Amino acid sequence: MPVSVGIYSVPLVCEAVPQIGCGCLAKPVLTQLGDHPDIARAWLHHRGDVIAIEWLRELDTDQQVGLLRAALGGDSHVALVATAAASALLASFPNPSALVPARDGRSAQSGRGAHHRRPSSPTAVARTRSVAR
């Protein structure tokens, strides 16, 4: 049973499209967080600058930030978002029941990003090959 949700600023914004999060950067972080025994769920905000983590037990802020920093690679800037701003940010996340868990190999929101999708039909494969030539 989850005990709390923390909101953290993180550096996972897409360099090519700075209005969205980077799936390539976020996937390993979300997978590692999703496998941690103290975490029920983790979501990346669509902007890529905020992660929400649903904790299964109480940890102090330094432990929470340290765990997230380790998942990001150790020397990333991570900070707990102030409570007043966290409520508004949490409300801007999609409905958690609509999210895909990071453990199943897809991104945290709706599967792979458009630039990582494989063509779904032979016609789409043919179009992709003709464009690539």
Q: Would you tell me which CATH topology applies?
A: Alpha-Beta Plaits
Record field, number of beta strands: 4
From the helix content, strand content and strand pairing, which structural class follows? alpha+beta
The percentage helix is 25-40%
Order of helices and strands: EHEEHEHH
If you average the pLDDT, what whole number results? 75
Instruction: Write out the strand line-up for the largest beta sheet, numbering strands in chain order.
Output: 2-3-1-4
Low-pLDDT stretches: 98-133
Please indicate the percent range of residues in DSSP E strands (runs of 2 or more): 15-25%
Level-2 CATH architecture: 2-Layer Sandwich
Domain module tally: 1
Q: How large, in whole angstroms, is the Cα Rg?
A: 16 Å
Q: Major sheet: size, sense and barrel closure?
A: 4 strands, antiparallel
Broad CATH class = Alpha Beta
Distance between the termini: 53 Å
- Distinct helical segment count: 4
Description:
The longest helix is centred in the first third of the chain and has 13 residues, at 23-35. A 4-stranded antiparallel sheet has the order 2-3-1-4, sandwiched between helices. The protein is α+β, with helices and mostly antiparallel strands and 133 residues long. It has a single domain (4-132), classed as Alpha-Beta Plaits (2-Layer Sandwich), CATH 3.30.70. The radius of gyration is 16 Å and the shape is globular. The chain contains 4 helices and 4 strands.
List the helices and strands and how they pair.
Blueprint: E1 4-9, H1 23-35, E2 39-44, E3 50-55, H2 61-72, E4 79-80, H3 83-92, H4 122-132
Helix pairs in contact: 1-2
